[in-house]
Specification:
Strand content: 5-15%
CATH architecture of the domain at 479-630: 2-Layer Sandwich
Radius of gyration: 34 Å
CATH topology of the domain at 479-630: Heat Shock Protein 90
Strand order of the largest sheet: 2-4-5-9-8
Number of helices: 23
Shape: extended
CATH class of the domain at 479-630: Alpha Beta
CATH superfamily of the domain at 479-630: Histidine kinase-like ATPase, C-terminal domain
Helix content: over 70%
Largest sheet: 5 strands, mixed
C-alpha cells in the first residue's frame, strides 16, 4: 500500500505556510528604504516562516541571521537559525538541520524563553521521526507538549499533537494516532487555523485508508487538498494524491488512479521533492503494469530506481558525516586520557624522588620507558593522520566523480527533452490540418504532411530506442549473448530497413553487401551499431549523395566500413564524438536533428563486443566510420 510507504515522509512543524503573505512581505522589504535593521530582520523571518519553497525559506532565514548578529538580538537570531533548520529538514539534510536546531535552542535557553525551547524539542522530535527512531521522537514530542501545556500555547500545542499523532500513525498505532489528531483538530477549529485543520483532515484520511475505510479516507483527503491548493502548500498534496491513487486502484478505477499519481509526480518535479518523485514513479509503474503498458511501466520503474538510489546515496553521505563526528570526539577523548596518564606518571615520579633518593637508577629507567612509549604513540598518531588524509582524498575524489556524473546526467536529460520536443510538436494539430487538406482536396500537401509525419515518427522512434538501450547499458542490464553471426546478412537486413529513408533524400545507398564475413558477437548490439551509423550517414548527406557499406578482413578482425559523401564532422567535435562533453546537438542536411546519443551507443556496444571504432572525416567531403569486430575463431 502506498499509504504505508509514505509513512514519515512529510514533516509538520509549528508553522502555517502562506506563500501569498510571504510575497507581500517581500514587496514591503524591497520597496521601503526607511526600515530599521530589527524590522527588516523580523520581516525576513516572517517571509522565511511563510515560504512554501525550502530553498527560499533557507535563503531569507540566512539573510535574517546577518541582521540579527548585526543588532545583537539573540531572540531574532534563534528564530533565524531555527528557520534555516526547518528548510534544511524539508530538503532532507538532517545532519545540518540538527546543527541549526541545537544552536537555536542554546540561544533560546540563554534568554530563558521556554516556548523557544519547546519548539526546538518539537524540531528534534521531527528529525528523529524522519530517522525512524520512535522512542527518541516520542520523548522529545512529550517534552514539548509538557512545556506548551504549562505555557497555554494552543497553536503550538495543537501542532505538536498533530506531529505526535503522525508518529503513531507511521508505526501503525492507529487508535492512539486518531486520539492525538482529534485533540489537535479541536484546538485548530477553535482558533480557525485553516492550514492546520487541512493537515489534520489529511492525516486522519491516511489513518482511515490504513483501516480500510476508503470512503472516509477519500472525503478527508479531498477536503484537505482543496484547502492546501488555495494556500499553495503543495508538499503534502503530493502525498495525499498518491494515497488517493492507491484508493482508486483498489476500486478498479485506474484512470482516476493514474490522474492522481501523475499530479503527484508533477508536484514533486516542480517543487524538487525527491521522495515524492520516487513514490509517484513507483505507483505509476504499478498502475501501467496492471494495464499491460510495459514500456511505460519500465520507464517509471527506472525513474523510481534512480531517485531511490539518489536518496540512499544522500543517506550514506550523512552517515559518513556522523561517523566522522564520532571519530573526532573519540580522538579528543583519547588525547585527554593520554594527557591525564602523563600527569599521573609525573606525580608518581615526584613522590618516588621524595621518598626514595637512592632509586635514581630506577627512575631513569622509567623515564626512558616513558620516552619510548611517547615515541610509539607519536608514530601511531602520525600514521593515523596519514590514513585519515588519504581517506579524505578518496572521499573528495568520489564526490567529484559523483558531481561530474550528475552533470553528465543532467545534460543528457536536457538534450533528450529538447530534441524530442521538435518531432513531437509536429503532431500538434495534425488531425485538424488533415481534415482541412481533405476538404480542400490538396493531395500534394497531404503527401507532404504524410512525409513529415513519417519523418517525425522515425525520429522519435529512433531516439526512444537509443535512449532505452543506452539506459539499459548504463544500469548493466543490457543482455550480452555472443554467437556466430554472418555479418553480411545482418548488414543487408539493416540496409533494407534504411532504403526508404535514403530514397526520400535521393541518396544512393548500397543495395547489398556481397562480402561474406562471420564474426563472434552479440547480434542485437551489432545490429544497433550498423543501424545508427547508416542512419547518421543518411542524415548528414545532402540530396543526391552516396552512402556505401563494405566488409573486409584485417588479421583477426572483421571491418565494417560505412562511407558517405556528406557534410563531414568539424575538427573541434572529433575529440568528444563518443561522450556527452561539449555541444552535442547538430542539424542534418534536411533539418533533421541529431543529439549524438547514437554515436555514444555505437562506442559502448563496440567495446562491449571487444572491438574498436575509427573515424576519418573532412568537412564538405564526407565521413568514414570503421568498426572492427573479432572474427569467429574456428
Amino acid at each position: 500500500m502506498i499509504a504505508c510507504i509514505l509513512a514519515g515522509y512529510f514533516s509538520y512543524s509549528v508553522k502555517g505556510q502562506d506563500q501569498s503573505l510571504a510575497d507581500s512581505l517581500i514587496h514591503v522589504v524591497d520597496s521601503r528604504n526607511d526600515l530599521s535593521d530589527s524590522t527588516i530582520c523580523a520581516l525576513l523571518n516572517k517571509i522565511s516562516f511563510n515560504s512554501t519553497n525550502p530553498d527560499r525559506e533557507i535563503s531569507y532565514a540566512e539573510q535574517a541571521i546577518i541582521y540579527a548578529k548585526r543588532i545583537g538580538n539573540e531572540r531574532l537570531l534563534a528564530q533565524s537559525l531555527r528557520n534555516v533548520g526547518n528548510g534544511k529538514r524539508s530538503k532532507g539534510n538532517l545532519a545540518s538541520a540538527i546543527d541549526y536546531y541545537l544552536r537555536a535552542g542554546l540561544h533560546y535557553s540563554n534568554i530563558g524563553l521556554e516556548l523557544g525551547v519547546a519548539v526546538v524539542y518539537l524540531d528534534l522530535g521531527e528529525v528523529y521521526r524522519k530517522q525512524d527512531n520512535f522512542d527518541n521522537s516520542k520523548l522529545y514530542y512529550n517534552k514539548s507538549i509538557d512545556i506548551l501545556r504549562s505555557e497555554n500555547d494552543s497553536i503550538r500545542l495543537g501542532s505538536v499533537l498533530l506531529n505526535t499523532g503522525e508518529l503513531y500513525r507511521i508505526h501503525d498505532l492507529l487508535d492512539t494516532a486518531m486520539l492525538y489528531f482529534d485533540e489537535a483538530e479541536s484546538i485548530f477549529r477553535k482558533i480557525n487555523f485553516t492550514s492546520r485543520i487541512a493537515y489534520t483532515l489529511g492525516n486522519k484520511g491516511l489513518v482511515f485508508a490504513k483501516q480500510g475505510k476508503n470512503e472516509q479516507a477519500e472525503k478527508n483527503i479531498v477536503e484537505a487538498i482543496q484547502v492546501l491548493e488555495e494556500l499553495s502548500d503543495f508538499d503534502p498534496i503530493a502525498i495525499y494524491q498518491i494515497s488517493l491513487a492507491d484508493i482508486y486502484e483498489q476500486r478498479g478505477d485506474l484512470k482516476k488512479a493514474l490522474n492522481y499519481a501523475h499530479s503527484a509526480l508533477n508536484i514533486g518535479q516542480e517543487e524538487g521533492l525527491k521522495e515524492q518523485i520516487r513514490d509517484a514513479s513507483l505507483k505509476l509503474s504499478e498502475l501501467y503494469q496492471t494495464q499491460g503498458y510495459y514500456r511505460k511501466a519500465y520507464n517509471y520503474q527506472s525513474q523510481y530506481i534512480t531517485y531511490r538510489d539518489s536518496i540512499n546515496n544522500d543517506e550514506v553521505i550523512r552517515k559518513m558525516a556522523d561517523l566522522r563526528t564520532e571519530y573526532e570526539v573519540s580522538k579528543k577523548q583519547a588525547e585527554v586520557d593520554l594527557k591525564q596518564t602523563e600527569v599521573d606518571l609525573l606525580n608518581e615520579q615526584a613522590r618516588n624522588n621524595q621518598i626514595v633518593l637512592w632509586s635514581v637508577i630506577v627512575i631513569l629507567v622509567l623515564v626512558l620507558f616513558l620516552m619510548y612509549a611517547l615515541l610509539k604513540i607519536y608514530r601511531v598518531k602520525v600514521r593515523a593522520i596519514r590514513i585519515v588524509k588519504k581517506r579524505r582524498e578518496i572521499i573528495t575524489a568520489q564526490r567529484n566523480q559523483l558531481a561530474e556524473a550528475n552533470q553528465t546526467k543532467d545534460k543528457f536529460f536536457s538534450i533528450i527533452s529538447h530534441d524530442i520536443r521538435g518531432p513531437i510538436s509536429n503532431f500538434h494539430g495534425v488531425s485538424q490540418l488533415i481534415q482541412l487538406l481533405v476538404e480542400s482536396d490538396d493531395k500534394e500537401a497531404l503527401l507532404k504532411l504524410g512525409r513529415m509525419l513519417d519523418t517525425s515518427t522515425s525520429e522519435v522512434s529512433s531516439l526512444l530506442d537509443n535512449l532505452l538501450e543506452w539506459a539499459m547499458s548504463q544500469q548493466g542490464r543490457m543482455p550480452y549473448k555472443p554467437e556466430k553471426i554472418k555479418l553480411h546478412q545482418l548488414c543487408n537486413s539493416n540496409l533494407g530497413i534504411m532504403q526508404n529513408l535514403a530514397a526520400a533524400k535521393q541518396i544512393k545507398l548500397t543495395k547489398k553487401v556481397k562480402e561474406k564475413v562471420t564474426i563472434q558477437a552479440d547480434k542485437n548490439s551489432v545490429s544497433t551499431i550498423i543501424r545508427n551509423l547508416i542512419s547518421n550517414a543518411i542524415k548528414f548527406t545532402p540530396e543526391g549523395g552516396k552512402v556505401e557499406i563494405t566488409l573486409s578482413y584485417e588479421i583477426t578482425m572483421a571491418v565494417i566500413s560505412i562511407q558517405d559523401s556528406g557534410i563531414g564532422i568539424p575538427q573541434e567535435k572529433m575529440s568528444h564524438l563518443f561522450d556527452f562533453k561539449g555541444e552535442r546537438s547538430r542539424w542534418g542536411t534536411e533539418g533533421e536533428k541529431g543529439v549524438g546519443l547514437g554515436l555514444t551507443l555505437v562506442n559502448e556496444f563496440v567495446e562491449l563486443n571487444n572491438g574498436r571504432v575509427e573515424v576519418e572525416s573532412q568537412e564538405g567531403k564526407g565521413t568514414t566510420f570503421k568498426v572492427y569486430l573479432p572474427i569467429l575463431s574456428e
